[in-house]
Design goal:
Number of strands: 12
Helix content: 25-40%
Strand order of the largest sheet: 3-11-8-9
Order of helices and strands: HEHHHEEEEEHEEHEEEE
Shape: globular
Mean pLDDT: 93
Radius of gyration: 16 Å
Oligomer: single chain
Low-confidence stretches: none
Largest sheet: 4 strands, antiparallel
Length: about 180
Amino acid sequence: DAGEVSRMRDEADRVSADAGTASVRNLCRRSPLFREVAEGERLAALIGAGFRPVRSILFDKTAGENWSVSWHQDLTIAVERQVEVPGYGPWSVKDGVVHTHAPATLLERMATIRIHLDDTPAENGALRVIPGSHRHGRLGEAALEELTHQPEVTCAAWAGDVLLMSPLILHASRKATRPARRRV
């Protein structure tokens, strides 16, 4: 509801200001409110029992922080520590947390959940997806290039909307043509 969204906006602004950036990793570690949302019963009702959050990121696009994102899949997961296991890698450390590319068999069982704190019409850099692209698994460059010529869907969202998607779906966003806050 509007009150809940307002509290999340205030907390997003606080976390972003503390971090000094418009893109904040480890949101649940930085914010008791977002940790409560991520681990709460309402989100569990959407995704089912036995699931848990493994990564939390805040994006805060503004007129001054207005970037585009090219077509991609989300292949990277956050892990507790690096353990050499076939199918995982390359490895990196982002904001003090170990990350690795995961195999499609794991990514197929995951969901990305986007909670929109601001209205995000197409003019404000809304998410774009290629429907069905997640069914192709992890894509190489040639397959990615070929699929980006398929029809796309713009996922306009309004404050309080929650979007669930496969991390394997091809997705992108344009720079906002009428920039406003876009906290996700």
